[in-house]
C-alpha cells in the first residue's frame, strides 16, 4: 500500500500526535500518502507533528474519538492509536481510558464500515496480563485482573479486539489487530513514566535508577521505527490477526538499567523500590505470525536503538535546562 509501490492513500491516524503516532504519520507522509490526524492532545503533543503540514498532504483535527467524527471525505484506511498508553497516564484518567477504548473504538469502527476503509487497531501485550504461558503466542487468552487499577487499560484493549472481531464477522469490516509490545525511541515524553524514559532521564541526571521489585521481571523492547513498519505492513494486508509485534529479545529490567548506565556513561546506582500492582513478571512475544504474514521482524538492535533514544533525551534535557 505504500505510495512508492501503489497509489497514494488517504489515511486517518487517531492518536497521531502521540509517540508512536508521530512516527507513523512521518512514515506515511514519506511514503506519499495523505494523512488526517485526529487527536485530543490528552497525552500527545503538537510538536510530534512539526513540519508535516509543509507536505501539503497533512491535516490535523483536535477532537476526541469518543464524540464520533463527522468525516465524509473518502478514507482508505484508519489506524487507531488513540489511548493513553503509559501507566501513569491511564491510571490518572481511568474512566477516559475506558471510554476511549470502548466508545471511541466503536465510533472509529462505524466510520471504517461506512467508508469501506481498513481499520488497524493498536492493541497491546497487556491483553496477556501477567501471563501464565511463556513466551506469548497469539493463541494465549491472557491472565488479566479485571478489577485491578490497570484493568482500565488492559480491558479496554481487550474490548477493542472483541469489537474489531465482531465488526469483521457481522459486517465484513476489514479490520486488523496488532498486539504491540513495549516500544521505545525518540519522541517519548521525558515524564511519560515508562521504563526507558525513566531510566535514561535518571542516568543522565546522575540520579539512582529506580527499579520496581527485584528487577528480575522481564521486558522485550522494540524500537519505534520497527513497530511503525509493522503497522504499515498490517495496513497493506487483509488479515484480522491478532498479530504480535515486538522484539523477542527478552531482558530483565535490571539488565536494561545496567545497559542504559553503560551507554550513558552514568555513575548512577540502582535503587530498588516496591513492585507495582499487577506488574507483569514476564514479557516475550512469539513473532512467527508477523514473520509469516507481514514479512516483519525487528531490524534495530537494542544498543543502536537505545543510543538514538539517549541522544534524543540528552537534547530534551538540555532544552529543559535552558
Ligand atoms: P501516546 O500516549 O504517546 O499516544 C496516544 C495518543 O492518543 C495521544 O496523542 C493522545 O493525545 C491520543 N488520545 C488519547 N485518547 C484520545 C481520544 N479519546 N481521542 C483522540 N485522541 C486520543 O501513546 P503511544 O505510546 O504513542 O501509544 C500509541 C498506541 O499504541 C496506544 O493505543 C497504545 O495503547 C498502543 N501501544 C503502545 C505501546 C508502547 O510501548 N508505546 C505498547 C503497546 C500498545
TrEMBL record:
Top-level taxonomy: Bacteria, Bacillati, Actinomycetota, Actinomycetes, Pseudonocardiales
Cofactor(s) for this UniProt protein: NAD(+)
Cellular component terms (Gene Ontology): cytoplasm
Cell compartments where the protein resides: Golgi apparatus membrane; Golgi apparatus, Golgi stack membrane
Membrane topology: Single-pass type II membrane protein
Domain NAD-dependent epimerase/dehydratase: 11-246
Name of the featured protein: NAD-dependent dehydratase
One GO process term, biological-process aspect: D-xylose metabolic process
Amino acid at each position: 500500500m505504500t505510495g512508492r509501490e501503489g497509489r497514494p492513500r488517504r489515511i486517518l491516524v487517531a492518536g497521531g500526535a502521540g509517540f508512536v503516532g508521530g512516527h507513523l504519520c512521518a512514515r506515511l507522509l514519506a511514503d506519499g500518502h495523505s494523512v488526517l490526524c485526529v487527536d485530543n492532545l490528552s497525552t500527545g503533543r503538537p510538536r510530534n507533528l512539526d513540519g508535516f503540514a509543509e507536505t501539503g498532504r497533512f491535516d490535523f483535527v483536535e477532537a476526541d474519538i469518543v464524540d464520533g467524527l463527522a468525516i465524509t471525505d473518502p478514507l482508505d484506511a484508519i489506524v487507531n492509536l488513540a489511548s493513553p498508553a503509559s501507566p501513569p497516564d491511564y491510571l490518572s484518567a481511568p474512566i477516559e481510558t475506558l471510554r476511549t477504548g470502548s466508545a471511541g473504538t466503536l465510533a472509529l469502527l462505524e466510520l471504517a464500515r461506512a467508508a469501506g476503509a481498513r481499520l488497524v487497531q493498536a492493541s497491546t501485550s497487556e491483553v496477556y496480563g501477567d501471563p501464565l504461558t511463556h513466551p506469548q503466542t497469539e493463541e494465549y487468552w491472557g491472565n488479566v485482573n479485571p478489577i485491578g487499577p490497570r484493568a482500565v487499560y488492559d480491558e479496554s484493549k481487550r474490548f477493542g479486539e472483541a469489537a474489531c472481531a465482531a465488526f469483521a464477522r457481522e459486517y465484513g469490516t476489514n479490520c486488523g489487530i496488532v498486539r504491540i509490545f513495549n516500544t521505545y525511541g525518540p519522541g517519548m515524553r521525558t515524564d511519560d513514566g515508562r521504563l526507558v524514559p525513566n531510566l535514561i532521564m535518571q542516568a543522565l541526571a546522575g540520579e539512582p535508577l529506580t527499579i520496581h521489585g527485584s528487577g528480575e521481571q522481564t521486558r522485550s523492547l522494540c524500537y519505534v521505527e520497527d513497530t511503525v513498519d509493522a503497522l504499515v505492513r498490517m495496513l497493506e494486508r487483509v488479515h484480522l490477526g491478532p498479530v504480535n509485534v515486538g522484539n523477542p529479545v527478552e531482558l530483565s529490567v535490571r539488565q536494561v538499567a545496567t545497559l542504559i548506565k553503560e551507554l550513558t556513561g552514568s555513575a548512577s546506582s540502582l535503587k530498588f523500590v516496591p513492585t507495582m500492582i499487577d506488574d507483569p513478571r514476564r514479557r516475550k512475544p512469539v513473532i512467527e505470525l508477523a514473520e509469516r504474514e507481514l514479512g516483519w521482524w525487528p531490524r534495530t538492535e537494542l544498543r543502536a536503538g537505545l543510543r538514538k533514544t539517549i541522544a534524543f533525551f540528552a537534547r530534551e534535557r538540555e532544552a529543559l535546562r535552558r
